[in-house]
Write a structure and sequence with these properties.
The structure holds two protein chains of two kinds.
Chain A lengths: L2 H9 L16 H6 L3 H6 L1 H15 L4 E2 L5 H6 L4 E2 L7 E2 L21 H17 L5 E6 L5 H5 L1 H10 L1 H25 L3 E5 L10 H18 L4 E4 L9 H6 L4 E3 L5 H8 L4 E6 L1 H4 L4 H15 L5 E5 L10 H14 L10
Parallel strand pairs in A: 1-4, 4-5, 5-6, 6-7, 7-8, 8-9
Antiparallel strand pairs in A: 2-3
Chain B lengths: L23 H10 L3 H11 L3 H22 L4 H18 L13 E6 L5 H12 L5 E6 L1 H11 L3 E6 L2 H5 L1 H10 L5 E6 H5 L3 H4 L4 E3 L4 H10 L4
Parallel strand pairs in B: 1-2, 1-3, 3-4, 4-5
The chains are: A alpha/beta, B alpha/beta.
Chain lengths: 343, 228
């Protein structure tokens, strides 16, 4: 099977030849090319080269057409702070609550950072065609305000100014759908809809149902391709039914009991996850194999499962040897039918 | 109302909720989760406690229980934040913006390492203020600058909040910088990377790690008693 066939089979809740592996490597391409992270993201061809080299090195099942989240903050007037050993971070929040009433969404074609992403995805699609899924990324309208306003001011807005909150969701929803569709048009096959605030760990599910779920339903309906809602390490068990109702296809799982999540999602959502990227830094081959086996044991039966990390980005500090061991472990332990006749 | 039988210290181990059944702290917890500002003021008025006692015996335990419930997955971070914000508002409105201070002889400072996302620091600030503990707020700061300020201000307990792994790993730089200067300053860390890897705080040379903002009270008590 090609990676695309493997993934399409898995997300159809059937068992492919083996468990698909998504190594969500946004940063390691810089090391492949011997570049600083800032230099790496400065040119789309670097990311293209980096992603293709990592695809060859690890033989995993996706291309991650993601640069860094702060590009969206930049589009709304924010800034990016680069560092040598981790993902670029969003600088001070660019928007104040009182400006929301007159706020205008950015135009994607006027944003150099977003254009670089589209250029990279276009070239990646030319390189791999439909053999390997290319994953684009958007920040959800409900979670983007953490970068737009700052988390505390965002929570203040939810509680103190629901009128402005509704307006912000409208603006962000329109931008999010447009940005997702631009990526799909450029070459992405699917969109990872990052929505960490959908997790009950972050936001009271009552508030999520009032603000986050409606805008997710509307936005995901407007996105012209499949979506994976990713909670970026947040648990999802309390909102699985809500996520299903948004129309999303997959869920990126965080600090959850993976077997319980799989049971809750079975036949409805494909589960993506949930290796701990922070601990992965210190795994030896045995620990890597154990983690892979445990995840497969918990969630792989019947398909509907893609092995990945739990955050949607593997830390820079995870060594290449560990990633190689991880990919080998999936090939060894992830073959269907699973041992013992499961599935 | 007889409060003596409910008296607890401002720091806990185990499940704080077990100690609070029917207490003003439990009433306050309920008022905070329900965002009932009037109830918060009423509980204070009914308590007959001095501001300092109310902080130590009611606000701090209530915030601790809310933190524990968040840790267990029973509440959301939005509950934790709004509870802290209501306590801060209460202290400003009812106590005139001058929270009472407990006898904390060690100088405490609170900082965020290289990040502009300050929710974690604000949550810790709510807990410290709620418990009547004064602290220096360093805001967002780099590792070397942080070491310099600790030396300048004679800080003995440094609280560091981080959001991302690289910032968490920078705590090692702070630890080494303090050690090079021979400064006796204990480090307490918290934030997502430390929650996701319970061994990380030791790896970076911190004395203690907290899974929730309210655990900072327990951590301060442990350091006071010489546990690390």
């Amino acid at each position: 099977m090609t990676s695309m066939e493997r993934v399409l089979t898995a997300i159809s809740h059937r068992e492919p030849d083996r468990v698909p592996l998504f190594l969500l490597l946004s940063l390691h391409g810089a090391r492949e090319l011997g570049l600083s992270i800032e230099a790496y993201f400065s040119r789309p061809e670097h990311v293209v080269q980096g992603q293709l080299r990592m695809l060859e090195r690890y033989g995993h099942d996706c291309i991650y057409g993601f640069f860094h989240a702060s590009l969206e903050a930049e589009a709304w007037g924010g800034s990016t702070i680069f560092r040598e050993d981790g993902p670029p971070n969003a600088g001070p929040p660019p928007i104040r609550a009182e400006a929301i009433a007159s706020l205008v969404p950015p135009r994607i074609q006027e944003q150099p950072g977003l254009r670089r992403v589209l250029e990279a995805q276009r070239a990646l699609r030319q390189a791999v065609g439909d053999t390997v899924p290319i994953v684009g990324v958007v920040m959800s309208p409900f979670s983007l305000p953490v970068m737009q306003l700052g988390f505390d001011h965002y929570l203040d807005l939810i509680f103190d100014r629901p009128d402005l909150m509704y307006r912000l969701m409208e603006l962000n929803g329109a931008f999010c759908a447009e940005w997702a569709n631009a990526q799909l048009a450029a070459g992405a096959h699917a969109i990872c809809y990052f929505d960490p605030l959908a997790s009950p760990k972050m936001i009271d599910p009552v508030l999520y149902r009032r603000f986050g779920a409606p805008v997710a339903q509307k936005t995901i309906a407007a996105i012209t391709g499949p979506t994976a809602t990713h909670l970026a390490s947040g648990p999802c068990l309390g909102v699985v039914d809500d996520l299903v109702a948004t129309g999303t296809t997959m869920v990126g799982v965080g600090e959850d009991d993976l077997a319980a999540v799989k049971e809750s999602c079975r036949g409805r959502l494909t589960v993506v996850g949930n290796l701990n990227g922070i601990r992965m830094r210190n795994w030896d081959d045995a620990a890597t194999a154990t983690a892979v086996k445990e995840a497969i044991e918990a969630a792989a039966s019947g398909g509907g499962f893609i092995l990945s990390d739990q955050h949607g980005e593997i830390p820079w500090q995870v060594p290449e040897a560990t990633l190689t061991a991880l990919a080998e472990a999936v090939r060894e332990y992830g073959r269907y039918p699973l041992p013992g006749g499961r599935g | 109302m007889l409060l003596e039988k409910y008296m607890v210290t401002s720091c806990y181990s185990g499940n704080a909720a077990d100690n609070l059944a029917g207490s003003p702290a439990l009433l306050l917890e309920s008022a905070l989760i329900g965002m009932d500002r009037l109830a918060v003021q009423q509980i204070y008025a009914d308590s007959g406690l001095s501001p300092l006692c109310f902080c130590e015996q009611v606000i701090a335990p209530a915030l601790t229980v809310i933190g524990e419930k968040w840790d267990r997955g029973d509440l959301s971070l939005s509950h934790v934040y709004m509870s802290g914000r209501l306590c801060e508002e209460f202290m400003e409105q009812v106590l005139g913006g001058h929270p009472p201070l407990v006898d904390e002889r060690r100088r405490v400072a609170l900082a965020v390492l290289e990040d502009y996302h300050l929710l974690g620091k604000r949550l810790v600030g709510f807990v410290l203020k709620g418990a009547g503990i004064s602290y220096l707020d360093y805001g967002t700061v780099g590792a070397q600058e942080l070491v310099h300020r600790v030396q300048r201000d004679g800080v003995r307990v440094l609280l560091i909040s981080t959001l991302m792994l690289p910032s968490a790993l920078k705590v090692r730089e702070v630890r080494d910088g303090l050690d090079r200067l021979g400064l006796e300053c204990r480090i307490i860390v918290g934030g997502a990377p430390f929650r996701l890897d319970p061994a990380l705080h030791r790896e970076v040379g911190a004395d203690l790690g907290c899974d929730t903002a309210s655990q900072v009270l327990l951590a301060l008590a442990q350091l006071r008693e010489g546990v690390s």
